[in-house]
Amino acid sequence: MAREASKGHKAAVTVLAWGVALLIFFPILWTFLTSFKTEGEAINSHPSFLFFDWTLENYETVNQRSDYLAHFWNSVVISVGSTVLGLIIAVPAAWSMAFVPGKRTKDILMWMLSTKMLPAVGVLVPIYLLARDAGLLDTKTGLVIVLTMVNLPIIVWMLYTYFKEIPGEILEAARMDGATLSSEILYVLTPMAVPGIASTLLLNVILAWNESFWTLNLTAASAAPLTAFIASYSSPEGLFYAKLSAASTMAIAPIMILGWFSQKQLVRGLTFGAVK
Amino acid sequence: MATQASRIAGRLMLSPAVVLLFLWMIVPLGMTIYFSFLRFNLLMPGTEEFTGFENYSYFFTDPAFWPALVNTLTLVLGVLVITVVGGVALAVLLDQPMWGQGIVRILVIAPFFVMPSVSALVWKNMLMNPVNGLFAALARALGLQPIDFFASAPLASITAIVAWQWLPFATLILFTAMQSLDREQMEAAEMDGAGPIWRFVHLTLPHLMRAMTVVVLIQTIFLLSVFAEILVTTNGGPGTASTTLTFLVYMQSMLQFDVGLGSAGGIVAVILANIVAIFLMRMIGKNLEA
């Protein structure tokens, strides 16, 4: 009897949860479906959900506009470049704070976090002027530098929380066996740190890919990543729903797939370890 | 324990990150403060002069300032209420036994990964457009008059879009916090005849309190900087109906090239964000000791 009730409960919860989930997901699903419609079908006043003539022509059109691929490439270079550069700076820093903590380690960590609290608009003008004077406006290099600095505190923090979980005894054991500092890092730490570094990499590529304040303000045309390119669809091209949908689908698909793999790291990275 | 050599090595490894972040913070911030006391317009180079607090008094008396401040707070509060209430409800729902929980979670989290310009454009054109949008089609099918969302309720429309983007974040964090809820205590309360509402109010909510605080603080930091959603949908209008502080500073410095005025506004935004940040830092700092 009790089992029956709980099965009924489970069925009710399942229906409700799927309903809500589909509602939340709907705008994305709708964009995905519209990307396979013709422009006429896309603005049909009696929209059809699945029963239309599926076509790939929007993807062809969008890809033939070679600038789409250029902007896609900009997004890849900027997000991966800034993440890798950030890791190169952050890995040694997080390593030293996790394994050779000093009196001020905690203060340094908190201070790094505080730089993240500075609203971007507070430093918009100086960064813009500095980039302009250095000839870095509308260049990938400029954006890589800016996004590296924007995300550096998050990278350091994530790595720190991962490194903290590597047991220190292992290092001491290695030292007892006569391992030097470099072999300690290479053979003992690195293998244990790889999963944490990979998660950090993943989350930061996602954050940098979607970053929309600096990418919109510091680029004009040649270095604009997808965030800026799609924003330029605002009007009147945005009224071509099918092409807009195809461009949007291609812009968000790679990152959404990466994102689904990084759900757990997301919580940890974005709450700076406050919720695990 | 740690040898002298490893301590020095540690210091060397830490310094690039510290030095770079320090420069990144202090140089632009110092420049913003300096600019905020200058008459400085990019269209009139060479006319810079010290003006004291003139930019600040201009900024505070700008007819757009109060609407922008009110809009900022409305947007932030609106999104916070929707995402925290919705997030708690979803976290409790997702925590129940069900079929296909993994897929449900994937669907709910998805909007967080959509870049702001895409979600703003999709909502503006494909859903909320008064002629060709899906909501208009639905309204017509029900025999209602389609609503021109961005003309009649611009700020509410932007709030809806931003809330849609951040609901997954709140849900994900609250759901993660649900995992550490004491199940035995729950069952004991159930055995004692406590109803689901009593258990929710007295056990679940207090347990989620901490995670809710974290959600509120972190979202506030990000929400104060909402930009692309406004740029793509309303451009701050009609009038100042959807202009926030961030957008106002952007307009003054990037569109009117008034660097001095924009910098003064930037400093005001920094002070506002700092008030939130102090609370957030205290929470995370406590966690670091635990």
UniProtKB/TrEMBL annotation, chain A:
- What SUPFAM superfamilies does this protein's entry cite? MetI-like
Q: Which UniProt keywords apply?
A: Cell membrane, Membrane, Transmembrane, Transmembrane helix, Transport
Q: Where are the transmembrane segments?
A: 12-33, 72-96, 108-131, 143-163, 184-207, 213-233, 240-261
In the UniProt record, does the keyword Transport occur? yes
Please state every residue range assigned to the domain named ABC transmembrane type-1.
72-262
Top-level lineage group = Bacteria
Please give the Gene3D superfamilies that the UniProt record associates with this protein. MetI-like
Q: Tell me the protein family, please.
A: Belongs to the binding-protein-dependent transport system permease family.
Instruction: Give the UniProt subcellular location, in the record's own words.
Output: Cell membrane
How is the protein disposed in the membrane? Multi-pass membrane protein
Query: What is the protein's major site of localization?
Result: membrane
What name is this protein filed under?
A: Sorbitol/mannitol transport system permease protein
TrEMBL record, chain B:
Residues annotated as domain ABC transmembrane type-1: 69-280
Q: How does it sit in the membrane?
A: Multi-pass membrane protein
Q: Which domain of life is it from?
A: Bacteria
| TM regions (residue ranges) | 12-37, 64-94, 106-123, 155-177, 208-228, 259-281
Q: What is this protein called?
A: Sorbitol/mannitol transport system permease protein
Alphabetic keyword roster: Cell membrane, Membrane, Transmembrane, Transmembrane helix, Transport
InterPro entries xrefs: ABC_transporter_permease (IPR051393), MetI-like (IPR000515), MetI-like_sf (IPR035906)
The text of the family note is: Belongs to the binding-protein-dependent transport system permease family.
Name the Pfam families for this protein: BPD_transp_1
Which compartment or compartments is the protein found in?
Cell membrane
| Species lineage | Bacteria, Pseudomonadati, Pseudomonadota, Alphaproteobacteria, Hyphomicrobiales
Q: By its UniProt entry, which Gene3D superfamilies does this protein fall under?
A: MetI-like (1.10.3720.10)
Its chief place of residence is membrane
Organism of provenance: Ancylobacter vacuolatus
